[in-house]
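so my prof wants the structure for this chain in the tokens format not the other one, which i didnt know existed until like an hour ago. anyway here's the sequence
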Amino acid sequence: METEHDRELLRIKPHWRAFGVWYLAMLLLGTGPLSNPEAVLSPLQAFVLAMVIALGIVIKSKTSVLVVTQESITREGGLIDRRVLTWPTSNLAGVKVVAGITSRALGVGNLILEPRDESPEIRFWGVENPRGVKARIELLAGLG
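here's what i got, hopefully its the right format
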């Protein structure tokens, strides 16, 4: 039975805009070989590669999650990185936001949650409004 302390206070999944570069790659693969007869890939090969990218996007967006409760912070990876990282919320020393030019233009970024001890840091990719989420996590953890 779920207790008050186990209730999710924040649940984050990668935002669809975080995959913007991958959408562009799919577009180029889908149209490039059709408009350029000298393309390295045939239209069928390019379509298959675009569908593999699309499958990767779906899997990553459906299987990656960051959950904050009063008691713990948990990150579940996607298909490739299946590690589940969990530590107590009280172990949070700080949150960093990392976002390149493209990510900032798309309004997304990465969060790096730093522990107080030797636990591995928790990294989460593709967060919408990362500065707002950072502030919210720090507030929930009693840092803000």
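also thought this was worth mentioning. The first helix runs from residue 20 to 35.
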